[in-house]
Specification:
The protein is mainly alpha-helical. 65% of the residues lie in helices and 2% in strands. The protein starts with a helix and ends in a 9-residue tail after the last helix.
Length: 258
């Protein structure tokens, strides 16, 4: 009798366990379904928010005391326009570089100094490339690639200044060698040439630094991205080359390196 009652209790316990297990599974399934629905809802909300953030909001600041304006999403900002000072800087630097290239062209026939030859080759290569860049920059903006500065319409890289309307010679750009300095350089050979070349090129480079400074000191100038990068790179390069040339001059005496 007791055995029969025990079996009945065990059977009842088994049915209740199965029922509880079934109920637990149903509850668990319902929880998973609810979580899945919530996740889907949140994803939809996130997509909607992303969709909203993908549309740019363009705001034009108002003048002092005036409200800002919301512009259409298709509005595009225009890059800063170049200035006349930018154009004159590029035109002037082309002529400036041309004289430096002319100076380096004398090296092959005037000295055997390996340090001077190596430096000259580097200056000639970099400044020739920069001349091409400046010419492209001017041409792309419809500007003349040659100088038209008052008083220097006929100037060239040889150190001969142009003439003003009265026929008087005008000053060269900063650092450029005069006609007399260029002629002296052409006549020199060996160590004398090395000395004149290095001192003349330091003078020339310092003039370029003045031109860059004058550009950035001019209101509204130097805002064009390409010109800004070029001018700052030229400034850094020429400062480094000045230090190199000064170190070469400090070697006493400046010997021929064969």
């Amino acid at each position: 009798m007791f055995s029969h009652a025990r079996k009945w209790k065990l059977c009842r316990f088994g049915r209740e366990s199965k029922l509880l297990s079934a109920r637990g599974s149903a509850v668990l399934f319902g929880m998973l379904l609810a979580a899945s629905a919530a996740t889907g809802f949140l994803c939809c909300v996130a997509r909607a928010q992303q969709g909203d953030s993908a549309t740019p909001v363009v705001v034009q600041p108002g003048a002092p005391g005036k409200p800002s304006k919301t512009l259409p999403p298709t509005t595009k900002g225009a890059p800063p326009q170049w200035s006349q000072a930018d154009v004159e800087f590029m035109q002037g630097m082309i002529m400036h570089h041309e004289q430096a290239v002319e100076m380096t062209a004398l090296i092959a026939s005037h000295t055997e100094n390996k340090d001077v030859r190596s430096l000259g080759a580097r200056i000639s290569s970099s400044q020739s490339d920069e001349i091409k860049f400046m010419q492209r920059w001017l041409a792309a903006r419809g500007e003349a690639v040659s100088m038209a500065m008052p008083g220097m319409p006929d100037g060239d890289a040889s150190g001969k200044p142009g003439m003003d309307t009265s026929g008087k010679a005008m000053a060269l750009m900063p650092g450029m060698l005069t006609a007399e300095q260029m002629e002296t350089l052409r006549k020199a050979k060996g160590a004398e040439f090395d000395q004149l070349f290095l001192t003349g090129m330091i003078q020339h480079h310092n003039g370029a630094l003045i031109m860059v400074k004058d550009l950035f000191d001019t209101a509204g100038a130097g805002q064009d991205a390409d010109l800004f990068d070029f001018a700052t790179d030229a400034d850094n390069t020429q400062r480094a080359e000045i230090r190199i040339m000064q170190a070469m001059l400090e070697k006493k005496p400046l010997e021929e390196k064969r």
